[in-house]
Write a structure and sequence with these properties.
Order of helices and strands: EEHHEEHEEEEEHHHEEHEEEEHEE
Helix content: 10-25%
Mean pLDDT: 89
Radius of gyration: 20 Å
Strand content: 25-35%
Oligomer: single chain
Distance between the termini: 21 Å
Low-confidence stretches: 1-24, 315-326
Length: 326
Amino acid sequence: MKSVGLGIIVIIVSLIGFTNSTNGQSSIIDVHQNVVDAFNAHDMDAMLSQTTDDFVFEACWLTDILDGQEYKIYMDTLFEAYPDEAFLDGLIFYTDDFIVKEHGIQGTHMKEYFGIPPTGKKADPWMHIDVFELDGLKIKKLWGYGDIQTVFVEGGVMPAPEYPPFIPSFDTPAPEATGLSPMDANTEALSRFNARDPQSWIKMVAEGADLFIGVLRQPLTRTELAAILEIHFAGFPDMNVETVRTVDLGDGWVLTQNNVTATHTGTWFGIPPTGKLSVIQEAYIMRFNSDGLITYYHSYYDNLTVLTNLGLLGETSSSQNWELFE
């Protein structure tokens, strides 16, 4: 699959100025820059100096929520395996209580990482969404949304997925303006998704919209996205999205964090139904135009979690490599 990196785009949506100063910080921008500097220096003590005493890290690919020291160990393991790992620029938004960032990280795989032997290769950018929840000028929680299957595929311990052409069984309908505000349009889009009607949902997507799903790692057309929705709804007829948080990022931009539940009772990408339930965390960033239509939709979740939930992965005793069951 062709991988794509997000260009250097910085969007300051709602900058909140502060008169007080904590550790030399005078604004949310300072907090973010200190985090970037600490990450790129692989200095987790400096990173944790930006956090509250009860800071926690929650990621869609982890089963446990990590406290500060556990997060430090987790990240030190990453830095040891990828000694040049660094943040890449991307979309960034500031609000009163949140820093939201869609971006990549990239490094060279020089040591074993969670059982993956070193490849000596510089990985493609790993795209994801970070959501920092703030308490004043301190970070009290960090969420991460991204696909770890990508890491396993690049490490050569999982086969690269082969997808069929994304062609829906119906003619893709033209966009239909909703006239809704961004937050109301986001609610409407979620309602149409939970109705599991891909034709209705895709009507809310403007022509030429920027569409991307992290698992697939390629830009999509409206027609391709409609086909993907149809495939998901056929495989998981009871798929339901429960919104955990929606953040108005300003200027038409909206962040949504979700819990998605679905029972695999239909064929999904050629995989026969397992009858098993999958529960995943997902986040997306969308932008709506003045007609209440989607002009930007980037969604991130961990497909390795989905495959594991459905019992479709196993560790072979001979190679200790993860591979899809035939």
